[in-house]
């Protein structure tokens, strides 16, 4: 039996860019031997480790490019604390079939109820399934579009924002739109309509979007496109953050302190 030169084997793996196998060669071969794998099984085992490493790197890089504000996973979402959220419906969204069809998802509800957590989690699921994703807050998005409009590069900016298969727009409605912003937002929605998916989180019901955009006519046109192929999930309940403060007694203490100060000032 021919003796395999280890340095030559490492060099060959390096040349083939099989870096995961190269970096873990001894431990992988030892594990294959302990498990008494056949040659075919051992080859499949080595290849699976290589693919796992590449997927890990791809997900990490794509997540950075997506500009998520933090890392969240669906397994970390407290469905028991938010009974208005249907676990099965969220799991269905995690299959990303809606992204393949270019549909829209809206998460509506008060601040702190997990809307952004769900949005980021679904964005990461989309990346795992090889969809490119971009995350942006509504305020930042509007500022980007307004600047591009002012610079005469709006068409270029709209083209860039149309490239991701999934565009996540967070915190719509938290800040009022400036003049002309609704028209710019409408152009983006129109550009992506039935081509790329949009996921929006908002603290306002769709019935309030006329006041959010400052133009009921444009808001209706935006909603007409967003709601055509959509899933709307309304989340009810208390804020996670305030719930923790209540458990610690901080809100009660703060309320007592305010009452004491008001009494003293009377």
Radius of gyration: 25 Å
Largest sheet: 5 strands, parallel
Number of distinct helices: 14
User: What is the CATH superfamily of the largest domain?
Assistant: P-loop containing nucleotide triphosphate hydrolases
The number of distinct structural domains comes to 2
Class from secondary-structure proportions: alpha/beta
Q: What is CATH's topology name of the largest domain?
A: Rossmann fold
- H/E series: HHHHHHEHEHHEHEHHEHH
**What is the count of β-strands?**
5
**Average pLDDT, all residues:** 90
Q: Kindly estimate the percentage of residues that lie in beta strands according to DSSP.
A: 5-15%
CATH architecture label of the largest domain: 3-Layer(aba) Sandwich
Uncertain stretches of 5 or more adjacent residues: none
Question: Could you explain how this protein is built, in words?
Answer:
It comes from Shinella sedimenti. The structure is a single chain. The chain has two domains: about 60 residues, no CATH class; about 160 residues, Rossmann fold, CATH 3.40.50.300. The longest helix is centred in the first third of the chain and has 28 residues. The model has no long low-confidence stretch (mean pLDDT about 90). Helix content is about 60%, strand content about 10%. Strands 2-3-4-1-5 form a five-stranded parallel sheet. With about 270 residues, the chain is an alpha/beta fold.
């Amino acid at each position: 039996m021919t003796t395999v030169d280890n340095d030559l084997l490492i060099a060959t793996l390096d040349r083939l860019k099989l870096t995961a196998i190269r970096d873990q060669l001894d431990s992988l071969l030892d594990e294959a031997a302990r498990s008494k794998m056949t040659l075919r099984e051992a080859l499949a085992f080595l290849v699976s480790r290589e693919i796992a490493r590449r997927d890990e790197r791809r997900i990490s890089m794509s997540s950075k490019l997506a500009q998520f504000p933090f890392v969240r996973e669906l397994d970390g979402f407290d469905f028991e604390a938010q009974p208005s959220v249907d676990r099965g419906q969220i799991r269905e969204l995690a299959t990303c079939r809606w992204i393949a069809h270019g549909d829209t998802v809206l998460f509506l509800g008060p601040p702190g109820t997990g809307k952004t957590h769900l949005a980021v989690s679904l964005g990461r699921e989309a990346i795992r399934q090889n969809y490119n994703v971009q995350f942006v807050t509504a305020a930042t998005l509007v500022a980007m579009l307004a600047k591009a409009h002012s610079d005469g590069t709006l068409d270029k900016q709209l083209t860039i924002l149309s490239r991701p298969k999934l565009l996540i727009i967070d915190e719509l409605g938290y800040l009022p739109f400036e003049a002309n912003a609704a028209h710019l937002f409408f152009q983006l929605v129109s550009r992506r309509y039935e081509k790329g998916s949009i996921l929006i989180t908002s603290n306002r019901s769709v019935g309030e979007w006329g006041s959010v955009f400052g133009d009921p006519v444009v808001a209706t046109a935006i909603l007409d496109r967003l709601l055509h192929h959509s899933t709307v999930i309304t989340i009810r309940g208390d804020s996670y953050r305030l719930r923790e403060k209540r458990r610690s007694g901080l809100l009660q203490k703060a309320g007592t302190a305010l009452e004491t100060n008001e009494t003293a000032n009377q």
